[in-house]
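Hi team,

As requested, here is the filled-out complex form for the S-adenosylmethionine run. I kept the field names the same as last time so the parser does not choke. Let me know if anything looks off before we queue the next batch.

— J.
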Amino acid sequence: MSLKNDVQKYYGETLKTNSDLKTDACCTEETLTPHLKQALAVLSDEVHQKYYGCGLVLPEELEGAKVLDLGSGAGRDVFALSYLVGAKGHVTGVDMTKEQIEVARRNIDYHAKKFGYNNVSFIDGDIEKLDLLQLEKNSFDIIVSNCVINLVEDKAKVLKDAYDLLKPGGEIYFSDVYTDRRLAKEHQVDPVIRGECLGGALYWNDFHRFAKSAGFSDPRIVTSRELRIEDDQIKTKLHPARFYSVTYRLFKIPELEDACEDFGQAVRYKGTLKTSPSGFVLDDHHFFEPGKWESVCGNSYLMLKATRFAEHFDFIGDFSTHYGIFKGCGLNVPYQATSGEQNNNGGACC
Ligand SMILES: C[S@@+](CC[C@H](N)C(=O)[O-])C[C@H]1O[C@@H](n2cnc3c(N)ncnc32)[C@H](O)[C@@H]1O
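And here is what came back:
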C-alpha cells in the first residue's frame, strides 16, 4: 500500500474521534481570545470530535478574506474560518480522504443555518497536485493547514504551489509537527507513526530550506510547543527524537530578504484591529502595543506594510539607507574586529 493509502485508511477508518490519537498533538493549548472562543463554540459536536489538528490556524483580520485550507479533514477550521471571514468572505477546504470530506459536507447546512449564510466549499483532492485543482493563481488572501503537510511526500511542491495561489501580500498560516533531526526511513514509513503526524515530521532546518526555496524568504514562528507522545511503544521507537507542534506564518512578499536588515524603520500599532485592541502579535518575538513606536527590520516592516495589516499601523522610513544587520536579529558582522568594539556575533532570532 502507498503512503497515501495508509493516510487515507488511518483518517478514514482507523480513527473515529480525536480521543483515539496517541499524542497530545490535537490538544491545542493556546489561549483563545473571546472572539476565537465564540468562533469555536458555535461549531457542531461532530466536527469537534473529528478535529485532528495540532495548532490554531485562525489569524487576525479575516473579515471578507478568501481562504484555502489544505487537508481540511472534517472541516473544523473551515467552519470556524467561515464564521470569522463573514458573509463576504469564502473558505475552500481540500482533502483526499472520502470519509473526512463526507463529514465536512454533511455539516455545511448546520453551520449555514447558524451563521445565516453559506460561504464554504469542499474539494476532494490531493494537495500534492494543487496545480491541477483549477484553483486560480494569485487569488487567496490566506492559506491555512493544520497538521497535514507532514503527511505528504513532496512537501516542497505543496509550498511552491501554495505560493502561486496566494495573492501578493498574502500568507500561509499553518500548524504542523517538526522534529529536531531527520528520522530513520523505517519510522518515516511506519503507518501508525506516520498517521500520528510524527513519521513525516520535517527536521525544522529542512523546513526552513523548503520554505525559502518556495519563495517564502523569512518564515516566522508564531507559537511552538513540544509534543508529548503518550504511547510507550511509539515513544521508545522514536527516542531520542523530539517533536514540536509549531505554527508558522509565511508571507508572499517577493521583496523579503533572507536576513533581518536595518533600514532605520519604525512602526506604530494603532490599536484598531477589532480582535486585538490591546496589542498585535506578529510572531513569537514581535508584540506591538498600541501607540508605541517600535524599531523593526526591513522584513517586519514589509510584513506589516505590504499586507492586510497596513491600515492598522503608522510607518516611518523607507529602504533608501542601509544601517547593516538589524541588531538582536540575525548574525552580527561575522569578521574579526581589528580594534575597539568587538563584533558581537550573537544568535539568530528571525
Ligand atoms: C491530521 S488530519 C488533520 C485534518 C484537519 N486539518 C483537522 O485539523 O482536523 C490530516 C488530514 O490531511 C489529509 N491529507 C493528508 N495528505 C493529504 C493530501 N496529499 N491531499 C489532501 N489531503 C491530505 C488527510 O486526509 C486528513 O484528513
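Two things worth flagging: Confidence is low (pLDDT under 50) at residues 345-350. The radius of gyration is 21 Å.

Thanks,
J.
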